[in-house]
Design goal:
With 142 residues, this protein is an alpha+beta fold. The protein is built from five helices and five strands; from the N terminus they run H-H-E-H-H-H-E-E-E-E. The strands form two sheets. Strands 3-4-5 form a three-stranded antiparallel sheet. Helix 3 (55-75) runs antiparallel to helix 4 (77-85) and helix 4 crosses helix 5 (87-93). The chain is globular. The chain starts with 7 loop residues before the first helix and ends in a 7-residue tail after the last strand.
Length: 142
């Protein structure tokens, strides 16, 4: 089940995440409790490090991950700006690693919903092939 539509409050950064970011910026190691394991947070894109190694894995797992990213883009302008600047680097920050042959393009025009297009370019300087196209669709029901 996708966690893309988790309530907004749970998607906001927690004090723990902010404290970890400050520690990382100043090179201070995080204090780990004995026997504790890192917990996934509601706004993380994946629960554990994910390495997609080939096109089949990208086609199978990346749509759900990018769906979570699109949902977060809709509610978090800072995340949206970072994702627009370098989608692959943002995914790597959230422990999602892609093959070198995969390219991601983020399209956000003023009058349309954000879109993510995933391409594969098996050989440099060759035409790229579109693998996935995701766009946030809003529906209302009664």
């Amino acid at each position: 089940m996708s966690r893309a539509l988790v309530p907004v409050i749970s998607r906001l950064p927690t004090l723990t995440r902010l404290r970890d970011a400050v520690r990382h910026a100043y090179g201070v190691p995080a204090a780990a409790e004995p026997g504790s394991q890192p917990r996934a947070r509601d706004y993380d894109l994946v629960r554990h490090q994910t390495r997609l190694r080939n096109r089949e894995q990208v086609e199978r797992y990346l749509p759900d991950i990018l769906g979570r990213a699109l949902a977060r883009i809709w509610i978090d302008p800072g995340f949206r700006d970072r994702f627009a600047a370098d989608p692959v680097a943002v995914l790597e920050y959230y422990d999602v690693f892609l093959p070198e042959t995969i390219e991601i393009e983020f399209v956000a025009e003023a009058n349309s919903r954000p879109q993510v297009v995933v391409y594969e370019r098996p050989i440099r300087h060759m035409p790229r092939r579109r693998l996935l196209y995701l766009q946030l669709v809003l529906t209302a029901a009664r």
